[in-house]
Backbone:
């Protein structure tokens, strides 16, 4: 029997959550006033959780490193949010969303969690509309939907290309209401640097005021970590510059198990890298794949001519182009899930067909969509024998209405007009499915310590479907955590205020201060970014889109060596008592340097290909699926939860076996 | 390209601060402006000097964190972009670029180019929300049809990223475009009607309290806004404010 | 409504309302002045009516004076408040990139107009009040009793080229002030963008033609007499 208890309630899948809610202990309103909760991170998960907990009557303190909760990186999500509303009448249902998510996740997620997610998805849309989120609507005044990769229904709600921002502003507005009531105290420009445990329970945090450098102690009856994913371990990713794993990693070091660190999502449609100075990668929404067709030239001569500027992509005729997704996956075509699309792009570029100077780019072409829409519009407007120019004009207008802001963004960055020439795209690190292990209650292996949103590992298995991250963040924050945490807090009503002048807080604060002083006094010879870039390079080369045992072993050794060098030679200018961005980065990169090693260890352990984790040793050898990823359900249908033991390389693996009662395990096929 | 940078350096909120000249070399025209700043900072760190503090986060033009006043304009000379999306191809070899923090009494400087925009948050605490609890039995999302026109207009107002370029560009350091956009988003939706009167009154009162200037309709904010928020939102806020005061 | 006019937006409305009133007054003033070009008699008749009719003298005139003073005082108050909203100025501020010169310099065009008003009061209003209320001559006739005095006085004033020059410059500033002020007042009052678009042409015509008309009158009388 594993030490892991997922605490999934008994009973049929469809009624588990309802039964659970009917039987948990509640806290009466008078007692809620005496209970404090800390929420670290104010994105969709943290913001919605903080607002809801405060509505219920708890005293909430929120922490974010940005200057306002509204800037959390949830804001950058473009495409949309899934919900099983079936407004389009195309056969969607809770079950289908559940099924698609488990299948999309390559059967590496917990059935009960995913079903609950699908169940509350519809409530999220209702809640957001009530808050004033301006979702796109059709002419009848009802909500519009679009479709996303990996599914066959239209269930994605959206607000132009800014769905994340609008949902976050909704959660932020709910927070504002509670801040005005005094139920939330926001600590902006604050970074959590450790969790404080008293008698085995999470009782508070140590935070640094990023403006003054002051180290602060904050106590609470429960601590919620909602600090997002760890994609920045790759240095280059679509994450924000400040996105970090520090909160999640610190709690891991204090006893919270870290699950499936190797499950990383490499998003297929990002703007390619242009040089070594590059600081981050920009995502182009997956929704573009609804209308864009992905291709590279068929002939190597054309590739070379394009790279040398002798030919333009528009010079190539249809039969000189290789629409490789349509060729390989006729059923789903350009709408295959993200992991499949990314690997296919890598396969073509590795074969030498990349179309830009770095050899790492493929085309995303809208010419046929523009023509198709143009002809459709010509018909609608009764224009017979429309000229090619007219058709182009009409079609471009439709494409502009759908993706105008994305096209504009692309043009600003790349300085090319995507209406006239195909976009260049390449996969980039985008989302981390792995994260802190949590049970059905979203509680970590530390009592009173919760983890929600991208920071936890829970719902997406080995691969996340498009438009599901926003759904999970808000589901956790609005509709799941407020119930499950109540069950825990019902036992805390007699605890009383938690003191911060205790030996536990002293020790935690000392650890934090020592580390900060170490960095300031180290006076090494390399900047923090120097190490971060090196780490990113190792991660991308050896733990990127495809992995093998040899490379992963090397990665573990190299990361460990890099970490040792970092502690010897890192240089952090300035002082600890001021706004010091380099100091902030140093702490975060120190944690990435540990997480990266565990990542490689986990990837090495998992000798199968599943979702975003592709092991070169585990591919289909023959038949229709030859060359595709091969999952191994006999040996690896489990969650890897790692227990910290001093060094990342020494971490101990605990397995949570995954049981599938509702869904039959199948090899994913998008052919 | 090689550039001369004139950058505002101020060690903390109390310090007086001054413009300091720096040189950067071999800047690629494909770099973003912030990547150019990264190059400068790397250079400063390697020379044992303190890097320039500046706010930035998402680097894709949506979080609203970056906030530089470049060559006399918020977010620099390009239109419809934030500083992180501004590319060096907008400049020429040999240019001198002046970089200052957003300046307003309500945006005090914290350090170098970093300013405190907490005043924007406080305005929203005053009324930037609809009072609805998270119950799970809220009315169905399609319960109230909203005309596409109103939904689109509300969306246009809601695209505001709260960066403060409007305040920085305004000769009066007025926040009316920001507040106008927030008021408009809710004013245009049926869900926002119930609290409309109190919302606009409270938000405007907080705006005045924060020490922002008064709008004189120069339109600079609209031009410099990276998200193209229209002046129409200010006119709508004025109407809302008048009718709120007439009603109570 | 308590506190409305103390709020920033309330003051915008107040500025806009006083501006509407002043713009209407200007139109009316011009309509009478232009008569002097076509018919001295008509001009005299109209001037006498305006100068002696009780409603104009005791109702509209005080309202006008209040409007003028209010517009100026509030303009100064807002300018002072707006300046204090940015304590530390930019080392480099490229205002021309995002706004018109007129919109950024309303205080200066306004001050030029104020200076002109002082001259205008000395030239016309104070002598007028002196004649009517100190000397008690409400007849509006010339000292020799041969017809009304208004036209003669007008012509006489525009003999001095320096004064005419000052008038011309002042009306150029008025034009600049109106070029921003006209549409700004509508924006402040909350006009919808659709309405503002329709007003654009009218605003241009008004803010250029009206001051040009005043300049024409001054030059006409200067060169014709």
Residues:
């Amino acid at each position: 029997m594993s030490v892991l208890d997922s605490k999934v309630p008994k009973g049929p899948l469809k009624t588990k959550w309802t039964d659970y809610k009917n039987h948990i202990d509640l806290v009466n309103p008078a007692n809620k006033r005496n209970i404090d909760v800390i929420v670290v991170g104010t994105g969709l998960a943290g913001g919605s959780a903080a607002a809801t907990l405060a509505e219920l009557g708890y005293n909430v303190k929120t922490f974010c490193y940005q200057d306002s909760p509204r800037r959390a990186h949830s804001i950058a999500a473009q495409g949309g949010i899934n919900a099983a509303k079936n407004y389009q009448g195309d056969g969607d249902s809770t079950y289908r969303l559940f099924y698609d998510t488990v299948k999309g996740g390559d059967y590496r997620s917990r059935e009960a969690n995913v079903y609950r997610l699908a169940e509350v998805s519809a409530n999220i849309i209702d809640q957001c509309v009530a808050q004033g989120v301006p979702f796109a609507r059709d002419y009848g005044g009802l909500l519009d939907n679009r479709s996303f990769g990996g599914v066959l229904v239209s269930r994605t709600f959206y607000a132009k290309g800014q769905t994340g921002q609008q949902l976050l502003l909704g959660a932020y507005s709910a927070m504002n209401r509670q801040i005005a009531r005094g139920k939330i105290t926001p600590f902006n420009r604050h970074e959590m640097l450790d969790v404080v445990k008293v008698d085995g329970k999470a009782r508070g945090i140590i935070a640094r005021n990023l403006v003054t450098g002051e180290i602060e102690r904050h106590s609470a009856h429960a601590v919620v970590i909602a600090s997002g994913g760890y994609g920045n371990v790759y240095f280059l990713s679509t994450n924000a510059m400040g996105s970090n794993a520090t909160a999640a990693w610190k709690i891991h070091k204090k006893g919270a198990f870290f699950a499936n660190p190797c499950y990383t999502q490499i998003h297929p449609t990002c703007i390619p890298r242009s040089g070594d100075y590059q600081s981050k990668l920009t995502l182009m929404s997956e929704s573009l794949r609804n209308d864009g067709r992905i291709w590279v030239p068929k002939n190597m001569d054309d590739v070379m001519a394009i790279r040398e500027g002798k030919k333009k992509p528009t010079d190539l005729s249809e039969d000189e182009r290789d629409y490789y997704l349509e060729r390989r996956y006729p059923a789903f075509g350009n709408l295959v899930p993200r992991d499949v699309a990314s690997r296919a792009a890598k396969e073509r570029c590795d074969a030498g067909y990349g179309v830009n100077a770095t050899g790492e780019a493929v085309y995303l072409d809208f010419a046929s969509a523009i023509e198709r829409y143009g002809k459709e519009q010509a018909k609608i407007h009764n224009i017979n024998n429309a000229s090619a120019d007219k058709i182009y004009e009409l079609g471009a207008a439709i494409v502009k209405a759908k993706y105008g802001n994305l096209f504009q963004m692309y043009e600003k960055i790349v300085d090319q007009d995507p209406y006239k020439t195909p976009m260049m795209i390449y996969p980039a690190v985008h989302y981390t499915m792995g994260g802190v292990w949590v049970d059905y209650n979203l509680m970590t292996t530390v009592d009173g310590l919760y983890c929600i949103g991208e920071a936890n590992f829970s719902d997406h298995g080995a691969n996340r479907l498009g438009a599901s991250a926003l759904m999970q963040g808000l589901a956790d924050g609005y509709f799941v955590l407020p119930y499950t945490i109540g069950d825990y807090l019902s036992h805390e009503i007699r605890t009383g205020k938690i003191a911060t002048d205790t030996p536990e807080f002293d020790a935690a604060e000392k650890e934090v201060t020592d580390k900060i002083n170490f960095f300031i006094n180290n006076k090494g010879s390399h900047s923090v970014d120097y190490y971060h870039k090196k780490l990113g390079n190792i991660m991308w080369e050896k733990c990127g889109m495809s992995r093998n045992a040899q490379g992963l072993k090397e990665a573990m050794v190299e990361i460990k060596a890099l970490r040792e060098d970092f502690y010897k030679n890192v240089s952090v200018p300035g002082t600890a008592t001021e706004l010091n961005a380099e100091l902030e980065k140093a702490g975060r990169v120190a944690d990435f340097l540990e997480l990266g090693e565990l990542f490689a260890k986990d990837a090495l352990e998992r000798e199968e290909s599943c979702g975003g984790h592709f092991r070169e040793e585990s591919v289909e050898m023959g038949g229709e699926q030859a060359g595709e990823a091969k999952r191994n359900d006999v040996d690896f249908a489990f969650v890897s939860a790692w227990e910290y033991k001093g060094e990342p390389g020494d971490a101990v693996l605990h397995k949570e076996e995954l049981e599938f009662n509702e869904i039959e395990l199948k090899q994913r096929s998008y052919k | 390209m090689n550039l001369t940078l004139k950058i505002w350096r101020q060690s903390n909120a109390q310090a007086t601060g001054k413009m300091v000249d720096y040189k950067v070399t071999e800047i690629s025209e494909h770099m973003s402006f912030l990547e150019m700043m990264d190059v400068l900072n790397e250079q400063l760190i390697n020379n044992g000097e303190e890097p320039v503090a500046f706010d930035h986060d998402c680097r894709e033009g949506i979080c609203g964190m970056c906030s530089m006043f470049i060559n006399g304009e918020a977010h620099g000379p390009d239109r419809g972009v934030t500083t992180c999306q501004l590319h060096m191809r907008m400049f020429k070899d040999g240019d001198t670029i002046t970089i200052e923090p957003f300046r307003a009494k309500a945006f005090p400087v914290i350090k170098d180019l970093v300013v405190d925009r907490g005043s924007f948050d406080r305005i929203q605490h005053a009324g930037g929300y609809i009072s609805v609890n998270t119950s799970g039995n809220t009315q169905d999302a399609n319960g109230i049809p909203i005309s596409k026109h109103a939904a689109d207009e509300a969306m246009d107002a809601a695209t505001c990223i709260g960066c403060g370029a409007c305040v920085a560009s305004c000769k009066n350091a007025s926040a009316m475009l920001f507040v106008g956009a927030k008021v408009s988003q809710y004013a245009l939706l049926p869900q926002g009607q119930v609290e409309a009167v109190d919302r606009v009154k409270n938000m405007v009162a907080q705006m005045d309290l924060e020490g922002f200037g008064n709008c004189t309709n120069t339109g600079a904010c609209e031009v410099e806004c990276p998200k193209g928020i229209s002046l129409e939102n200010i006119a709508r806020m004025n109407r809302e404010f008048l009718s709120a005061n007439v009603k109570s | 409504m308590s506190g409305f006019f103390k709020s920033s937006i309330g003051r915008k409305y107040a500025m806009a309302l006083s501006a509407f009133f002043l713009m209407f007054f200007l139109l009316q003033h011009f309509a009478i002045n232009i008569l002097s070009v076509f018919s001295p008699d008509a001009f005299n008749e109209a001037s006498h009516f305006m100068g002696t009719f009780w409603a104009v003298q005791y109702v509209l005139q005080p309202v006008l004076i209040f409007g003028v003073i209010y517009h100026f005082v509030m303009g100064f108050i807002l300018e002072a408040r707006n300046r204090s909203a940015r304590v530390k100025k930019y080392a480099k501020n490229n205002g021309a990139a995002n706004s018109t010169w007129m919109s950024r310099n309303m205080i200066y065009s306004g001050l030029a107009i104020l200076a002109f008003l002082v001259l205008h009061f000395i030239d016309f209003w104070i002598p007028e009040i002196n004649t009517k209320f100190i000397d008690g001559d409400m007849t509006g006739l010339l000292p020799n009793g041969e017809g009304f005095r208004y036209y003669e006085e007008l012509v006489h004033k525009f003999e001095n080229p320096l004064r005419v020059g000052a008038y011309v410059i002042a009306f150029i500033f008025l034009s600049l002030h109106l070029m921003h002020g006209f549409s700004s007042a509508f924006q402040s009052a909350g006009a919808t963008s659709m309405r503002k678009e329709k007003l654009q042409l009218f605003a241009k015509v008004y803010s250029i033609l009206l001051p040009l008309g005043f300049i024409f009158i001054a030059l006409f009388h200067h060169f014709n007499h």
